[in-house]
Amino acid sequence: MDTSAPDRRRGQILLAAAGGVLATVVGMAVGHLVAALVDPAASPVLAVGSTVIDLTPTPVKEWAVAQFGTADKPILIGSVLVVTLLLAAVAGVLARRRFAVGLVLLLVLVGVAGLLALLRPTAGPLDVVPALATALAGGGALWWFHRASVGAPAPADGTTGIDPDGDPDARRTTGPTRRGVLIASGVLAGTAVVAGSVGQWISTVRTRIGNIVLPKPAEAAPALPDGLDIPDLSPFRTPNDEFYRVDINLTVPVVDHESWTLTVDGDVENELTITWDELLDMDMVERDITMTCVSNDVGGQYVGAARWLGVPLKTILDRAGVGDRADQILSTAVDGFTISTPLDVATDGRDALVVVGMNGEPLPREHGFPVRLVIPGIYGYVGSTKWLTKLTLTTYDDDVAYWTERDWATDAPVKIASRIDVPKAATTVDPGTVVIAGVAWAQTRGIAKVEVQIDGGAWEEATLGPDAGVDYWRQWYYEWDASDSGNHAFTVRATDETGEVQTDVRMSPFPEGSSGYHTRAVMVS
Ligand SMILES: Nc1nc2c(c(=O)[nH]1)N[C@H]1C(S)=C(S)[C@@H](COP(=O)(O)O)O[C@H]1N2
Ligand SMILES: [Mo]
Fold first, then answer.
1. What range(s) does the Oxidoreductase molybdopterin-binding domain occupy (predicted)?
2. Which of 219, 236, 260 is CA-nearest to residue 370?
3. Do 396 and 437 sit in the same domain of this protein?
4. Which listed ligand is nearest to 335 at the C-alpha?
5. Greatest CA span in the chain, whole angstroms?
């Protein structure tokens, strides 16, 4: 085969770049496997991603959520991977001429990831192990690939080089063979796939929640009425695996309930530490509560309704005896996240709960296993601490929490909101009766009325679905006589039981929750 020298050079550079990428992937896969054995959250790739999330300025985060919705995290991991692999390719190319230089770049890459894994709030000393494993495996793989593709240094007898035109490869003699490169690549790729998937499998198995029997509630909620059954309308109760998830973590924190404790400290008469068994021995109540994220835009999906099982927050605070200085409950979670909640919401009679069960099951890990807070009427970031470990009674003057430090509102009651689910956006519907349907919520006040406006006409009252209390959303529907073909738009608004009408003033989620009416357009034809 006759290839020109420049062509061959280009080929070799590409090969070297591929070697760098392969070595890095092997390193990360081995690191992931070792992390699965030591501490799944210490996986170097994930540590880099979490740090990027933490350092991303709020406007960029908002933009990412707006652009990609719940896919913001996978997209973030993806971008981190792409940048890492580009640098890895550069390391491979550098290693081709000066192995040590490429190796140093590769180790810096891995070193940064390892360091970030160690700087996580939940990191322990053992978390250095996955980082070391990544470095060893990545460095070793780079070396092997290099040996296979460039060859070993020339022996002293100075036999002919393989590249006569001054390429560094000319100094090598035990020249590379296609077969050697293929074997090295194959073995390395195989190692990466096996280590990566076994690691993933081990993490999944290790983090499964075993058999936990939750206590029967001392105060059970009445049976939830059957909701409206309209295709594409949100179900009256959101199943756990469809419940929105919002938190600062790339990997779900894994907490062992047997060793979990809840500390109550700060301005209290008796500092408390409650274990899992002690918590389960306390009287539990069951409540239907709708939760909303402050980042939910008009018409957004960051809202869900579930049946929660837990101990009233007030019971626990009363045991500790709250002092008279405190005006804030600062809660701390395993992920280092903090939430500040007005003390009032624990005492004003609403169902602020320390929760262990969601829709009849232990909390899923994604939603805060083993214990979280759920407080109706305020957005998640000021009241629904997941993976809860500590409640500190303090003041707003003394302490600031994670999102308030990042300029989100200190006080954030949920705004009245309504959403159209059906028909789906930008669809074409047949002329005749068209069912418009959705959900509306105004936690702690309850929904009294939902109205629909077609093409800017009069507000028409929609029919409400069953009522499960003021803290729970209402489904609604309206039968629209769509006789005129063409484009039509409809808008929804809700009124709460105090008579307050949802505002049409359009506001973005930052800093205290979105407002404005949800509108949808369809084509009748
Ligand atoms: N520990 C912890 N708790 C947290 C968060 C978090 O990042 N870490 N995010 C909060 C936010 S912003 C919301 S909206 C709710 C979401 O709860 P969910 O994921 O169960 O829907 O959790 C809250 N609790
Ligand atoms: Mo949120």
1. 250-399
2. 260
3. no
4. 1
5. 96
Closest Cα to atom 5, ligand 1: which residue? 247
- Please report, for the domain that includes residue 427, its CATH number: 2.60.40.650
SS3 for 1-32, per residue?
CCCCHHHHHHHHHHHHHHHHHHHHHHHHHHHH
425 and 402 together in one domain: no
What is the extent of the structural domain holding 482? 417-524
- For ligand 1, atom 15, which residue shows the shortest CA distance? 380
Give the Å distance between the CA of 244 and the centre of ligand 2: 10
Q: From the CB of 369, is ligand 1 less than 6 Å away? A: no
Q: What is the 381 CA–ligand 1 centroid distance (Å)?
A: 6
Share above pLDDT 70 across residues of the chain, in percent, rounded to a whole number: 92
Closest CA to 430 of 382, 483, 390: 483
Q: 406, 427, 451 — which closes off a domain?
A: 406
**Is the CB of residue 333 below 6 angstroms from any atom belonging to ligand 1?**
yes
Q: Does residue 230 sit within a domain? A: no
Can you spell out the DSSP letters for 97-163?
H-HHHHHHHHHHHHHHHHHHHHHSTT--GGGHHHHHHHHHHHHHHHHHHHHHHH-PBPPTT-PPPS-
pTM of the model: 0.78
Residue 411 lies in a domain: no
| Number of structural domains found in the chain | 3
Same domain, 100 and 79: yes
From the CB of 301, is ligand 1 less than 6 Å away?
A: no
* Whether the CB of 244 sits within 6 Å of ligand 1: yes
Mutation pick for ligand 1 pocket among 50, 58, 247, 367 (CB with most ligand atoms within 8 Å): 247
Tell me: the pLDDT tens digits for 253-296? 889 899 999 999 999 999 999 999 999 999 999 999 999 999 99
The per-residue pLDDT of the chain, averaged, comes to: 89
pLDDT of residue 238: 98
Q: Are 381 and 408 in contact (CB under 8 A)?
A: yes
Pick the residue with more confidence: 156 or 294? 294
Q: What is the pLDDT of residues 173-224, one digit of tens each?
A: 456 778 888 999 999 999 999 999 999 899 888 878 888 999 999 999 999 9
94 CA to middle of ligand 2, Å? 45
Question: Of 206, 228, 252, which closes a domain?
Answer: 206
